[in-house]
């Protein structure tokens, strides 16, 4: 009796195989991330985007890694926000990806929606104009990593 799995669909080197019902379901790896941005009426809103994590790389030990497209960052910084931080309306200083390393951060947009991120999650502030957004620390102090996106950053290229 063989322990080998039979694939029930064709695969490519960039597919990620996930076991199910005695076979494999083949899907491309993706990561959901929230972006908030300025709207045409001067407000701000959240948008869910899916980042493709489908570029294959073999590490020196033979492991197959799946990664996103790379980009060069103009700056990377770590910032500790005090537990009492409660900022009124403001813009992101630059297009950036923010990773929460410790604590819980809440952001509100002009349409009244609020979302929270905790350690291990990320979001993309991209509201450089308009009313901006609110930020407050729910559990803190919060430690964040800010990775600035290049001025010509193309989301469509990065997402596919």
Short description, anyone?
The protein is mainly β. Helices cover 3% and strands 54% of the residues. Strands 3, 4, 7, 8, 9, 10, 11 and 12 form an 8-stranded mixed β-sheet that branches. A two-stranded antiparallel sheet has the order 1-2. Strands 5-6 form a two-stranded antiparallel ribbon.
Secondary structure elements and pairings:
Layout: E1 16-20, E2 23-27, E3 30-38, E4 44-52, E5 55-58, E6 64-67, E7 76-81, E8 86-90, E9 96-108, E10 114-118, E11 122-126, E12 133-148, H1 155-159
Low-confidence stretches: 1-27
Mean pLDDT rating: 83
CATH topology of the domain at 32-51 and 69-159, by name, is Jelly Rolls
Termini separation comes to 41 Å
Number of helices: 1
Approximate strand percentage: over 45%
Describe, in plain words, how this protein is organized in 3D.
The chain is mainly beta and 160 residues long. The chain has a domain at 32-51 and 69-159: Jelly Rolls. The protein is 3% helix and 54% strand. It is built from one helix and twelve strands. It has one helix at residues 155-159, and strands at 16-20, 23-27, 30-38, 44-52, 55-58, 64-67, 76-81, 86-90, 96-108, 114-118, 122-126, 133-148. The strands form three sheets. Strands 3, 4, 7, 8, 9, 10, 11 and 12 form an eight-stranded mixed sheet that branches. A two-stranded antiparallel ribbon has the order 1-2. A two-stranded antiparallel ribbon has the order 5-6. The chain is globular. Mean pLDDT is 83; it is low at 1-27.
């Amino acid at each position: 009796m063989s322990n080998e799995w039979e694939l029930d669909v064709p695969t490519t080197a960039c597919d990620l195989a996930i076991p199910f019902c005695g076979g494999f379901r083949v899907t491309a790896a993706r990561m959901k991330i929230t972006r908030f941005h300025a709207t045409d009426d001067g407000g701000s809103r959240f948008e869910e985007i899916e980042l493709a994590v489908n570029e294959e790389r073999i590490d020196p030990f033979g492991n197959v890694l799946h990664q996103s497209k790379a980009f060069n960052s103009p700056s990377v910084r770590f910032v500790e926000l005090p537990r009492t931080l409660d900022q009124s309306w403001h813009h992101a200083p630059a297009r950036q990806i923010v990773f929460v390393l410790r604590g819980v951060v809440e952001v509100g947009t002009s349409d009244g929606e609020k979302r929270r991120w905790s350690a291990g999650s990320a979001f993309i502030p991209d509201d450089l104009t308009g009313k901006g957004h609110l930020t407050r620390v729910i559990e803190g102090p919060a430690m964040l990593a800010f990775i600035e996106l290049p001025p010509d950053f193309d989301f469509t290229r990065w997402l596919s």
